[in-house]
Amino acid sequence: MRRRIFNATAAALGAVAAFLALYRFGTEFVTGGFDGRPVAVGVPETAGPDLRGAFQFSFLDRPRAVPELPFADGDGRAVSLGDFRGRPVLLNIWATWCVPCRAEMPALDRLQAGFAKSQLLVLPLSIDRKGSAVVRPFYEELGLKALGIYVDQSGKAASALHAVGVPTTLLIDRDGREVGRKIGPAEWDSPEVIALLREHLGLSDSAQKVSP
């Protein structure tokens, strides 16, 4: 009986989380259940241009502090967001089991390849419970070369950042403050998105690498 009550409560909480995501952001497509992890959030494949164009960034009137999140790099070394202060950071909360994450990861890789990491760091933070053991082959499968590997097996980062779904992306300024975020995938290397990053993260025109 208690297990049935727990399962019903978990399902209800999952529905509430999905509803809140839809209510707050209007156009997000939420899938998955509630097991302590964010649900997957993405654009339906059948969505037309109008719906896809409605997936917008949310920018803050005033930057707000971001918690000092502990996690690990691909070699298992302990790091935190504070280690990257002094440069803009695009923090992407994702997981290998998230289909929209898989779809946008190559664009994130191309975005990082276009900028020196000292000018813009694309930080993909995996919340996979198996850590780099599943992330590394995922990178190899998709041919990701420019992105570093970062993992939070505890899943606490998503909770601390109030990420109701993955992917959730935070734009963090040089002082370690959030200036905006996006729930759901994006074409990160598109001219429109790069223009937004330049505007809200203060990237200079010289920050982007010149293609040969």
Shape: globular
Number of helices: 6
Return the string of H and E elements.
HEEHEEEEHEHEHEEEH
> Biggest sheet, open or closed, and with what strands and sense?
8 strands, mixed
Fourth-tier CATH superfamily name? Glutaredoxin
Contiguous uncertain segments of 5+ residues: 5-35, 44-54
Number of domains: 1
| Helix fraction bin | 25-40%
CATH class: Alpha Beta
- CATH topology type: Glutaredoxin
Tally of strands: 11
Radius of gyration: 17 Å
Q: Roughly what is the average pLDDT, rounded to an integer?
A: 81
CATH-defined architecture: 3-Layer(aba) Sandwich
How far the N terminus sits from the C terminus, by CA atoms, comes to: 65 Å
For the largest beta sheet, what order do the strands appear in spatially?
Answer: 3-11-10-6-7-8-4-5
What structural category do the secondary elements indicate? alpha/beta
Tell me the strand percentage band.
15-25%
Task: Write a structural description.
The strands form 2 sheets. This protein has an 8-stranded mixed beta sheet, with helices on one face. A 3-stranded mixed beta sheet has the order 1-2-9, with helices on both faces. A hairpin with a 4-residue loop joins strand 4 (70-73) and strand 5 (78-80). The model is unreliable at 5-35 and 44-54 (pLDDT under 50). Helices cover 33% and strands 24% of the residues. It has one domain (2-207): Glutaredoxin (3-Layer(aba) Sandwich), CATH 3.40.30. The protein has 6 helices and 11 strands. By secondary structure, the chain is α/β, with parallel strands linked by helices. It has helices spanning 2-25, 49-53, 99-113, 132-142, 156-160, 191-201, and strands spanning 29-31, 39-42, 58-65, 70-73, 78-80, 89-94, 121-126, 150-151, 165-166, 168-172, 177-183.
